[in-house]
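JOB MANIFEST
job_type = single_chain_structure
chain_count = 1
residues = 687
[input]
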Amino acid sequence: MEPSDSAPAGRDDVRHLFSRLEEPGTPYTTSEVADRLGCSPAAAERTLSALADRGELRSRETDGGSRVWWQPVGDADATDGRSRLREFGAFVSAVRDYAIFMLDPDGTVASWNQGARRIKGYDEDEIVGRHFSAFYTDEDRAENVPEANLEKAAEQGRAEDEGWRVRADGSRFWANVVITAIRDVDGALQGFTKVTRDMTEQREYELQLRKERDLTEQILETVPVGICVIDGDGTVLRANQRALDRIDVDAAGLTERSIDDWDLYDGEGEPVPAEERPWSRVTETGRPVYDFQCRSAPASDGQWFSLNAAPLGGDASGDADVVVAIEDITDQKERERRLEQRKAELETELSGILGRISDAFFALDEEWRFTHLNEHAAELFRRTEADLTGQSFWAVFPERSDGRLWEEFRAAMDAQEPTSFELYDGELDAWLEYNVYPSDTGLSVYVHDITERKEYQHRLEESNERLEQFAYAASHDLQEPLRMVSSYLQLIERRYADELGDDGQEFIEFAVDGAERMRDMIDGLLAYSRVETRGEPFEPVDLDDVFADVRDDLQMRIAESDAEVTAADLPRVEGDRDQLRQVFQNLLDNAIEYSGDEPPRVHVDAERAGDKWAVSVRDEGIGIDPDDAERVFEVFQRLHTHDEYDGTGIGLALCERIVERHGGEIRVDSEPGEGSTFSVTLPAVDE
């Protein structure tokens, strides 16, 4: 049966209980007394309290909140150190989270509990009898901190200290220490009690909190925005300096100021109602509000702010705190205003420019939508500007979405490289030239109607073809009468040589020489007219082989002129072997012919230039005036008389036409007396 709260605990029973203790002075807890007497703890505590009031018992509350009771011993025992130590040891046995021990008046350790063993690492037999300064660091001992603490406790009755202490293994821990002086009834110092608590974890936690607090303070004062915390009533609880400057309040009067006292206006210059301000909306809805833009004055010169507000530590409700970030965006707003103004100016300027462009122009964005176009483009596509602006090119012109136009536009956009091409537009029945310029935002397209040029080009090609046919026919038909003239001149020379005399002989020689030159010119004209019509298909040609063949053909001429002809390693090109042989034979022959008084020195070299090879023929001859650099490539154009140098005046013109057929160019770099370098570009072979 459980004892009742009202069941008595007789004083005699309690006295008898304490009188039976083997060691007088041993403390009992209230629960232990109740168990021994068979009563409730409440009844036992009432009786124990009454005896304590009469002085028959003594009592003390432990750090754990429980109370212990003991019977005081006589005076003889009170002066007996061993009894005192037993009394103290029994009292502290219930305490395990603290190092509790006694010191003699000189600081020698006189007792040791389990808490002390756990915290400091010493067994009782290792530390009892040693001076308590063993627990202090070398620095504290050097400054007499242990002795100063004992003196303070002796003078004031109690000394409290925090600092580093040393365990038996040499490791350190942060300790909270309370030293209490123990005196007898006469006031004589009997020693000290020393209570030590390991505060290392708490100190590290506090240091971490302090570090985080300092970091937070540093961040708050460093960030380029104002930050403040307000409660549900709008009272500013905390703010960094930027926020204080924004809301125009001093730190001393911070909590006396409501953030709603801050004058705010919208973009139209109207005051922002309190209920529409971001912090009010957060308090009402519990949801953050971002980038609420407002300004500090109704006039246009007021500061602009972007406000962000969010519940502090989770959902907001009622009067929960709200954190507010205030960013000055005045400069940004001014830049936006200038950009808008500049945009309007550019739009006006662009419209004027587009109107002055003679070509049709239109711009497409990355979604192929028309963003700009001029009147010429609208006329070309037979639509109005309003019909096209904002519309997809391919939606308006679906018939153009599956052909070359789509491929060219797509390729230019992907490669981000300009392109130009010509295209026949069946819908418009016109030839169009497109010049396309891509960018990250789309395409700019210039369209030029080249129908008339194409028709003229077609007529010109037909005319050239007829002229080529005429030149071929004329030169071919001239061969026969020319042969007849030459034959009869030679016949006259043989039959009537004796009758002609010196003048007649000379006249005959002039006529024969003229007929020979005429035949060479006709042969050259035939070759010139056949470049396009009689050429062979292109194939890989080894220029080393071509150069070797040309040297063989000119072997006698090279030997007679004592010429030195050298060449570097020459490449393979795409071309007509026979025509390329004609080109290099003419160039080498000219280099030898126009060498001047010195033996000819000719060198052939090659250099890669993108997808082409540049082949050069350099001589050290008489050179050419730069003013004549273009004229030497014209048909029948000669810079020297027949008496000075032989030639028909068609060789370089033939070279130019052959090189142009190969998609290349020929040019000459020269100065009179400095030699000449003829350069030819030819398509490289894809290895």
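[summary]
Residues 60 and 412 are 94 Å apart (CA to CA).
The longest strand covers residues 172-183.
exit_status = 0
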